[in-house]
Amino acid sequence: MIRAAGVVAAPTDTLVGLLALATSDEAVRRVLAIKGPGREAPLPVLLPDVESVQLVAEDIRPIALRLAERLWPGPLTLVLRAKEGVLGRGVASASGTVGVRVPGPSPALEVLRAVRAPLTGTSANQSGHPAPVATDDIEDSVLSAVDLVLPGRCAIAAASAVVDVTGDTPRVLRKGPGIEGLLV
Predict the structure, then answer these.
(1) What is the pLDDT of residues 126-178, one digit of tens each?
(2) Domain of 104?
(3) CATH code, 41
(4) Neighbours of 54 (CB within 10 A)
(5) How many separate domains does the chain show?
């Protein structure tokens, strides 16, 4: 289903996400339509493992790899330089960056490991609405727009930390679980 531009709602370790091929313009368009108006941020990308970072990013700094190896799988999103021409429209930012992470144990990680491709990982809610932490919390408008829901509850139930590692010094863009004291 995912390889055919389908969209699946599934729990990650942090929030219930909309999983779709991050490399497919059609799949990305579907995810953006589900999110609705008001979505300004680029879509985050979920990966099956640390080695997959090279599929979607370039100019990967050593600090980024150290953070990934230490905290992935887990609730850390790293902002990296997006590899040109790989991701669907709307995934990378206007400045050419992409947020990537490998989620912790969850149905989403199982899907990632089965598909072996970068997937979108935005929360399964309309923009401006609360992000669900269990599939029972997904709004009807989202439920009617996805192709499949993998049931479950998120273990952490909080948005991931976001760290920009495109420069020489990491910058915390959003605090989150698991990074306290790490970048000191």
Answers:
(1) 999 999 999 999 999 999 999 999 999 999 989 999 999 999 899 999 998 86
(2) 2-174
(3) 3.90.870.10
(4) 11
(5) 1
